[in-house]
Amino acid sequence: MKRFKRYRLVLIVIGLLLLTGVIFYLLKNWRQEKVEIEKSALPSPQSTFSPQLESTKPQETITATPIPAEFNLDVPFATQAPGANWDYTHEEACEEAALLMVKRYFFGESITSDSDAEEGLQEIIDWEKKNFGFFESTTAEQSAEVARKFLGLQAEVIDIPSVNDIKEIIASGKLVIVPAAGRELGNPFYRSPGPLYHMLLIKGYTQNRFITNDAGTKRGENYPYDFDTVTNANHDWNGGNVEAGAKKIIIVGK
């Protein structure tokens, strides 16, 4: 009897082991099938790398156009005192003289005589008096306004110009008017001690100098200044404190 009970216990244990194995096998297959189903629901993998086809079209190379080593525009000349009359009005007329030369150049007009130059100066002075209430010591911005509104030219003011900036502007066919602390220019032909505030017209350049039409002297046509002389003296009116004035130039074109 004891042997039978022992035999039955062994069969039960074997049966439980077999049942456990079957259950384990079924669970394993079920999990595997579930994973396969989940994978099949995902989008097909795609590469994010998009190879660039080599273009057969040659690429354009952008290079700056070199400016000429020397350049000089043929701008008519006038002094700010055409009749050598250095009275108060003409002592203050350098800005108007620079603007007159610019106007005549861009409209293809010459300056035929002292009286012609004087008439041109007075027209600009009259406009300034009417629109500004004065004509003396106009700033860079005010002179640019005269060029635009009265002379019919394009004009803009830029700050802190470099030598290369000015050379490139001239080489493009435009002109540059420079406000300056006049006594820092060191022109030996100015009446002593030289103007506190001055404007000169840059019309060209050489390897180491700007070529100007400087209305402050009758010898001012094609007058050369070293680059450093002009850039160091470049100061706007600044209410009369010229040596502390901002560095600005007026670019004028048609």
TrEMBL record:
The chain crosses the membrane at residues 7-27. InterPro entries: Peptidase_C39-like. The keyword Membrane applies. Pfam families: Peptidase_C39_2. Residues 73-214 form the Peptidase C39-like domain. Keywords: Membrane, Transmembrane, Transmembrane helix. This is Peptidase C39-like domain-containing protein. It comes from Candidatus Berkelbacteria bacterium CG10_big_fil_rev_8_21_14_0_10_41_12.
